[in-house]
Amino acid sequence: MLIFRSLLFNILFYLGILICLIVALPCFVLPRRAICRVIATWARVNMMMMRVVVGTRVEFRGREHLPEGGLLVASKHQSFWETFALLPLFSDGVYVLKKELTRIPFFGWYALKAGMIPIDRSGTVSAIKEMMVKGKAAGDAGRQVIIFPEGTRRAPGAEPDYKAGTAYLYRRLGKPCLPVALNSGVFWPRRKFLRYPGTIIVEFLPPIPAGLKPEEFSNAMQEAIETASTRLWHEGMRERDRD
Asked: What predicted TM-score, i.e. pTM, was given to this entire model?
């Protein structure tokens, strides 16, 4: 049943992407908020399909830590799941994403229309400066800038590999940072076909205030995210093993 449910979900998921790309075509001539609403609706539909087809529920903890207005959101990245599922939780979220994705026909065009922030992962000084300028503009406009500090997906329990770009962006924005821990990789593993039943937990941790020194900020962010994500990983594995 696990294989069948996973196959059915994946078929519906990619079919949903195709339908969304078609439905969203009028958004090219509409204000930016229109495509953001379409993406948020698509994300909610995916989470509903996971619950119905696979039996994967979602629990959001720490919602009281979600502040209003401009904000840096630093999230653990274990799965493709959080690349869409976090967006509906914010009033005007914007992802920092790898530049290669913006070159994908339609998908990339929609991402640019939504005001997503592409970054060249070469790590050059000019690439980091470009990210900071666009991130600062988004934060000043009251948007929530969502970044994955490790840059790519890492399996639950893997050795963390945080990049320096998040600290640069934090300093440039001059906004609080909301650390986000999760265990999505337990139920939607990276580079695997299977989708497991259980409960994906996302935990919003107490915000890190603006104005810390980069090293102090980096240490506080990594400790908060890794401590909570390790706890959620073990919690998720216990649930998956019971099922």
From this structure: 0.93
